[in-house]
Amino acid sequence: MTFQDFNLNDTLFEGIQSMGFDTPTPVQAMAIPIILTGQDLIACAQTGTGKTAAYLLPVLDHISRKKNPKINTLILAPTRELAQQIDQQIQGLAYFTGVTSMAIFGGGDGIVYEQQRKAIQNHANILIATPGRFLAHLASGVLKLDDLQHLILDEADRMLDMGFQEDIMKIISFLPKKRQTLLFSATMPGRIRTLAKSILNDPQQISLAISQPAVGIDQQVYKVYDNQKTPLIQLLLKDATYSSIIIFAGTKEKVKEVHKTLLKLKINVEAFHSDLKQAEREEILLLFKNRKLQVLIGTDVLSRGIDVEGIDLVINYDVPSDPEDYIHRIGRTARAATKGTAITFVNERDLRKLVNIETMIGKEVTNHELPAELGEPPVFKPLNSSSGNKNRRPNHNKKRPQKR
């Protein structure tokens, strides 16, 4: 199958070709025909599978065939970084179609807000928004959504994790009841299905295998005490040829702490967190994308909101509580059939989390010996029989852990 098989508008197909797209990914091959028919859709697919183009292409095809589409489509996303990335992809795909778009997010100055307001008044065809800022524009009275035909929720699970469910439902109360609604989510916990039932109409469903890391990722584990983590990073980076590295920490406070420590070691690193101004966050991401910044450290929000090719190494400074977040973190490397390395530091408190991850991916992660100069690693006590055993291979038939 190629993109020609979808019979898309010629001007849109020209944009597809200019971006080097040729063969649809599995999620695109399954989702595009359904969306083109106008049906609602629930799609379970993680970042890196091509899901953004899966919903953008049929929507852009629809808009490009209309004479005066006005505000036709609303895309809700959990973070400003993801909203901006979606907007950038629209600009590339829609370059020859005349379709307009605007990313709407908070954190900017008055000039940014005014730019967003003017785009709304001038009826940008596609609005890509974080829920909080979009509600602010709704409250101002400038937004008129009578002609809206498509609502897309991207990374719906992450939006619920971030506490946006009430905002989402309030936004939906302003939308026409007759519309096409598309829900894309990396996971499908019960509350996502409950949300889908309340806002979608007789949806089609597609699901890709979401809980397996890319085959090109070399997954490694080091058993460490907390005070061995930073020296280990220093050793890993000392002689290696890694040019683009992401470090994930569990909290914003930990991100700041590790950032300060790595700076003292003369490592080219920046911290990425919500306390930074929007301009600062954009500058850091640009430096990282342009390979002028070697190391970027952030929390799990970064794992869903960054789309950078060629990341060599992902380090989990802390083991994520949710195995799905592990998948998203290490999925930043080995994208587009390339290879990469993912290293996870595990202390004794995190042993259960590691077992849950291994259960989900169906295999044990290779344990590497701690360099001798860092001292002895911790000796883990076996987990009791009621909670599993680290020395026993994971039970592949066990149900996957659910988010709580």
Quick synopsis:
The chain is built from 15 helices and 14 strands. It is α/β, with parallel strands linked by helices.
What's the SSE blueprint?
Elements: H1 10-18, H2 26-36, E1 41-44, H3 51-64, E2 73-76, H4 80-93, E3 101-104, H5 110-121, E4 126-129, H6 131-140, E5 150-153, H7 156-161, H8 165-172, E6 180-185, H9 190-199, E7 204-207, E8 217-223, H10 229-238, E9 245-248, H11 252-264, E10 269-271, H12 278-289, E11 295-298, H13 300-305, E12 313-316, H14 323-330, E13 340-346, H15 351-361, E14 366-368
Parallel strand pairs: 1-6, 1-7, 2-4, 2-5, 3-4, 5-6, 8-13, 8-14, 9-11, 9-12, 10-11, 12-13
Helix pairs in contact: 2-3, 3-4, 6-8
Give structural notes.
By secondary structure, the protein is α/β, with parallel strands linked by helices. The chain folds into 2 domains: 3-207, Rossmann fold (3-Layer(aba) Sandwich), CATH 3.40.50.300; 217-374, Rossmann fold. The protein is built from 15 helices and 14 strands. The protein has helices spanning 10-18, 26-36, 51-64, 80-93, 110-121, 131-140, 156-161, 165-172, 190-199, 229-238, 252-264, 278-289, 300-305, 323-330, 351-361; strands spanning 41-44, 73-76, 101-104, 126-129, 150-153, 180-185, 204-207, 217-223, 245-248, 269-271, 295-298, 313-316, 340-346, 366-368. The strands form 2 sheets. A 7-stranded parallel β-sheet has the order 3-4-2-5-6-1-7, with helices on both faces. Helix 3 crosses helix 4 (80-93). The protein is globular, with a radius of gyration of 22 Å. 45% of the residues are buried.
